[in-house]
Amino acid sequence: MAFYDSIHLEKGMYAAPGKTFTQVLEELDPSGNYEGSPLAGLDAYQRQLKRFGIKVGGADSDAVEKFFQTSDSAALFPEYISRAVHQGMERANILPSIVATVTNIQSPDYRTVVSSMTGDDKELKHVGEGAQIPETTLRTQANLVHLQKRGRMLVASYESIRFQKLDLFTVTLRQIGNYIASTLVGDAVEVLLNGDGNQNAAPEKSLSAAPTYNDMVDLWTSLSPYELNTILASTDMITTLLGISQFQDAQAGLTFQGTGKMVTPLGANLFHVPELAEKTLLGLDKNCALEMVQAGDVAVDYDKLIDRQLERAAITVTAGFAKIFTDACRAVTYTGS
After folding, report:
1. What is the pLDDT of residue 206?
2. Three-state SS letters, 111-153
3. pLDDT, position 15
4. What are the helix (H) ranges across 231-292?
5. φ, ψ for residue 36, nearest 5 deg
6. Rounded to 5 degrees, what angle do the CA atoms 21, 86, 43 make?
């Protein structure tokens, strides 16, 4: 068994190319070595918290200063911040519900691939003996997908927070994560609606009045052969949709009251997206409409957090979005009052 309590921790572990702090720790202290022991179920980072007796949650959580009792334990602080921010991003993040795939890269720019398929290309036709099999061509997009850095600057002196309980400090960090997630959703919606710079904006249908149930059925049929499984709606459009009688189904109401998730009579999940422009909704097949491209995970300024004991530290995420199949997403807007 590897001995987690003898590992030397230092800030250079955050600088390993393409690896997180926890991944570096796992290589030194694999979790598989602890199967059947009291430490089973903990990852390498959590074992280090146990090593130094740091409790980050609950009513009896420690103060921030517990991280800085030794130089080794101080090296755990950036990972604590990263995980707390990540928790905030996951709590109210709808990206997993609209992104088909996530691509990790080590570059500020990315060129995705696309398959331009017409209605005829989508058919698997009979191929006679000796005849040529129909082809589907993949090609790289003409324009790059540009990644954007999104984040917040955490400003505080060590003296002002050293006695602050970690449980309460985590609440602030989670809220920062929530802000970052909301911004990423805004970026994703912008690409779904207007494209990623490769002339692939979502086909749009404009209505002169608020959408009716028949309009939603038209949206459902227009996506074929893709599946309408996700609807994103602006604040005012959510109010309009939930006013349609078919959307007030008793079973749908029970689902909303029990889980907080809105469903529709069309079988699609309905999400409130304040980032969408007024009187706008998007219907899409989440399995093939959008690709998320990111350069690493949540990043923190580990030098400042360890050496200067906080002061000013940037918490950032670098990501971008690309359309996969243009017809897998359609927009509906209305111009009436």
Report:
1. 93
2. CCEECCCCCCCCCCCCCCCCCCCCCCCCEECCCCEECEEEEEE
3. 86
4. 235-242, 250-259
5. 85, 0
6. 45
CA pair distance 43, 51, nearest whole angstrom: 12
CA distances from 122 to 56, 131, 226 (A): 53, 18, 11
Q: What is the identity of the amino acid at 257?
A: Q
- Comparing CA positions, the residue from 217, 203, 206 lying closest to residue 336 is 206
Q: How far apart are the C-alpha atoms of 25 and 160, rounded to whole Å?
A: 30
Supply 202's token pair: 């979502």
Q: If you search the block for the tokens 């720790």, which residue do you land on? A: 25
The strand pairing partners of 73, in sequence order, are none
Strand partners, 277: none
Q: Which token pair is 14? A: 């955050």
Contacts of 10 (CB under 8 A, 6+ apart): 71, 72, 75
- pLDDT for 138: 59
Q: 290-294 and 101-104 as β-strands: parallel, antiparallel, unpaired?
A: parallel
Please state, as a whole number, how many other Cβ atoms lie within 10 Å of the Cβ of residue 86. Answer: 19
Task: With CA atoms as reference, report the closest residue to 281 among 265, 268, 290.
Answer: 268
Q: Is the peptide bond before 225 cis (omega within 30 degrees of 0)?
A: yes
CA distance 2 to 28: 8
Query: What is residue 114's predicted lDDT score, i.e. its pLDDT?
Result: 65
Residue segments in the chain with a per-residue pLDDT below the cut of 70: 1-2, 114-142, 249-264, 308-311, 337
Per-residue tokens: 168: 């309460």
Q: Give the CA diameter of the chain.
A: 80
- What one-letter code names the amino acid at 179? Y
Token pair in block for residue 73: 């334990």
Q: Sketch out the chain's domains with CATH numbers.
A: 4-95+145-185+299-316 (no CATH), 187-292+323-334 (3.30.2320.10)
Radius of gyration of the chain (CA): 24
pTM to 2 decimals?
A: 0.81
Structure tokens at 276: 């969408």
